[in-house]
Amino acid sequence: MVQSLKKWLAYTLTNTQTRLVLFLTVSVCIIIMGVSATSYYTSKSVLQSELSEPQHQMLQISMNFIDDYIEKADQIAVSVALHSNVYTFLTADNQNSYTNISGIYEFFSTLIGNTSYIDSIYVYDTERGSFVSMPQGYSSSKVTFPDSEWVGIAGEFGDKKMLVRKRSVPPGASGGIRNAGSELTLFRKVLIQGEFKGIVAINLKEEELFARLHPPHRSELERARFIVDLDGDILYSVSGGGFDATLVQDAVSQPGEESLWDFRHNGVSYLVNRLVSPLTGWQYVSFVSQDSLLARSKHVRDVVMSVSAAALLLGVLTVVYIQSVAFRPVRRIQRLFRQSNRDIPNADLLHLERLTTELLSDHAQLSQLIRQTMPEASSKYLFDIYMGNVSSIREMREKWSSYFQDWTDEPLTFVVVSIDRYEAWARRYPSADHSLLKFAIANVTAELFSPEWRTVCADFGKDKLALLLQRKRASERREEACREACRHAAEVVHRMLGFSVSMGVSAAHADAGKLKQAMLEADNALGYRLFRGYESVILFADVSDHEPSAATMKDQWLDDLAGAIEAGDEARSVAIVERMAEELRTAAYYPSDALKLLKSSGERLRRIGLREDAEDWAEEGPFEELHTLSLDDIASLFASKAAELSERYRSLMESKDFVLCLGMVEFMKRHLGEPIGIQEIADAAGVSVSLASQLFKQEMDETIYGYFTKLRMDRAGELLVETEDKISDIALKVGYQHENSFIRVFRKYKNITPGKYREMMKFRSEAANVELRGRDELESKGNRVAP
User: Fold this and answer.
1) Which stretches are transmembrane (predicted)?
2) Partner of 180 for a Cys bridge, out of 171, 175, 232, 569, CB 3.0 to 4.6 A?
3) Strands 283-289 and 268-276
């Protein structure tokens, strides 16, 4: 019997339909059970949240009421501390003045009589150990005062001004007002001129203070409330329904600061609310038994589970019926495969799934591969033609037929897109963004051309992109349509990306073997950007008839420009550059010839700059990107460079006054320790005092006296650091006969006295030595130290 059952199960579970039914049945079972459990726990959570809100509000009201009483009691304690008779009691030599004690007693009696929650008031002198209180009166010592065991509270204040403690009252200490036992007392520190002089103690009536903590019994919920102090002791409790007050010790010790949580104690689950008083730090805790809270919710849970079980049984029957009907076509396909002698292992249908998956997967991979590789292969094809890697017409046509199978026999147009002012553009954007921006240009242009044109984009490096276009539908306005589309694309690129591009457009060619010629035509047309300006769209048909004039640029102009610069004639050098630009513009040069001449001029300027200031001009590369600039911008660039060089050469020729000033500076440096003045410096230079002062101010932008004083102070700073000489000796070495005069001038220039300056620099030197020693130790151990 058991073996037969095992064989039946093994045969049944190998069948796909059976496994699917089993899977659906188990899934539905799990879903229904999950929904049932989720519904129960969700309703439980919502019910807990809703029912805990009144408990939370009642705790909040009770806490606010108690905190309000304690705050008022603290204000009364402050008024007691500020009372004139209390001040006299704490500061006077004679404390037992009948008049003063009577005044305090009457004041305390008035406060207690007008306040329902105050039982008694004490004032304790911490220095002399005496008391004055209502109702006990005056006691000169804590030995004679019956309720004095609390005086140790003085050591617990710390930085706090007020404390509230529950304390034990010894028998006979109540003075007849309250019974002995426990007392809730507010203690207030009394400070007189910043010194701890005494303590005001106000004993509070617990029945009045905690009156609001008693909840109204309008339901059968088992609940209790507790107040726990900072030490974890229970100050007050309101228990009901058989609650054990000791469980609060375990509840408040739970980690975390949640205001609502579940708590189990002795097998009973409680819903706990907790609030913490910002005034006293007490914890107000409410316990509600969840057995009484969720009694009806459990009944709902049982009903839901019963309904779920019935729904599960109905679902199983439905799934079995549906699968017998739904798999009927599949079983027919299975019989067809058997008739065709196809291999169907274990009479199962998994082979259908595998076959379908393989077919769809192969098709998807092939489609994805074609979509990814064809645009890349097409772009590489154009780039190879442009670079000369594919030169034979036969090879061009063969690869064309492979890469462009969906293109028609319509003529082809080639467009070269170039970024205007490429050098400035490259400086404007990080190098990491250059490829991304060129990709954006390609996407924008391809998107704009796509409604009417087939497009392929290729990156030709640096400033250039290429577009191969073909009209989707035949049109007689092909050339004008291409011009308008290119202009629109240039405008959109400028508007969206924030920089301009120019385009050169070739003539239309019907043969793919003429793509190289089309590229040359587009490049040639793009070169006319030099004369037409930025964001130009130039068709080869517009410039194919261009013939230059017979005039040629003479090398004499470059020599004249160099001569004007070296003569320091800024106006003449700028005028020569402007005439050169005008000559290029009016003589109708080919763009390639004009660029060749302009690059020669730029190289000449660079060589002049290297002669004059090799360090600055060596960092500037040759004028390689002139082909992306307009003639006006090139002329402005050359004029700026020529003016800069002319100014530098003129400054060199006018520097004899500067040399004279340098001679005066050298004289100052040689005579720092001598009591010389402006007259001696002018005599050494061989000029009058007034002329010396005028030239020095003009060339050095500072007076002779100020510069000489600065040299002396700098030398004094070096001597302070490098030597251990006295300040008076250093003053003599820099030309000051009086130490006080030297100190006054040094502080004016350095914003610090000489002594402090020496101390500060010595400290910096020692710190630097410590750091260097630490680096040497790390490097000796094989560690590399970052600079």
Assistant:
1) 20-41
2) 171
3) antiparallel
Considering the domain architecture, whether residues 638 and 684 belong to the same structural domain is answered as no
- Residues of the domain holding 669: 656-775
Please tell me whether residues 525 and 595 are part of one structural domain.
no
Q: Are residues 601 and 685 in the same domain?
A: no
Co-location of 467 and 578 in the same domain: no
State the chain's mean pLDDT as an integer.
Answer: 77
Distance of CA 745 to CAs 680, 681, 685, 734, Å?
21, 20, 26, 12
pLDDT for res 415:
92
One-letter amino acid at 614 equals A
CA angle (160 as vertex; 94, 210 as ends), nearest 5? 95
CB 222 within 8 A of CB 241: yes
Residue 32 resides in a domain = no
Q: What is the side-by-side strand order in the sheet with 223-228?
A: 234-238, 223-228, 283-289, 268-276, 260-265
Positive or negative CA dihedral for 356, 358, 362, 368?
A: positive
Query: What CA–CA distances, in Å, run from 516 to 415, 446, 458, 523, 627?
Result: 12, 21, 14, 11, 21
Residue type at 269 in one-letter notation = S
- When pLDDT is cut at 50, 70 and 90, the band that residue 777 belongs to is very low
| β-strand pairing of 464-471 with 453-459 | antiparallel
DSSP letters for 419-476? ETTHHHHHHHS-HHHHHHHHHHHHHHHHHHHTTTEEEEEEE-STTEEEEEEEESS--T
Residue 667 lies in a domain: yes
Q: What does the pLDDT look like over 210-228, one tens digit per residue?
A: 776 666 655 556 677 777 7
In a domain, 527, yes or no: yes
* Structural domains counted in the chain: 4
* Helix H or strand E encompassing 543: helix 540-543
Q: Which residues contact 710 (CB under 8 A, 6 or more apart)?
A: 702, 749
- Rounded Cα distance, 731 and 374, in Å: 85
pLDDT digits (tens, 9 = 90+) for 307-365: 777 776 776 677 667 666 766 766 676 666 555 555 555 445 556 566 567 656 776 77
Q: Is residue 718 part of a domain?
A: yes
- Give how far Cα 268 sits from Cα of 9, 37, 55, 284, 294, Å: 46, 21, 19, 21, 13
First to last CA, the chain: 85
Range scoring the smallest mean pLDDT among 149-158, 262-271, 735-744: 262-271
Burial of 478 (0-12, 13-18, 19+ CB in 10 A): middle
β-pair partners for 418: 464, 502
Residues 532 and 387 in one domain: yes
Among 629, 655, 405, 330, smallest CA distance to 502 is for 629
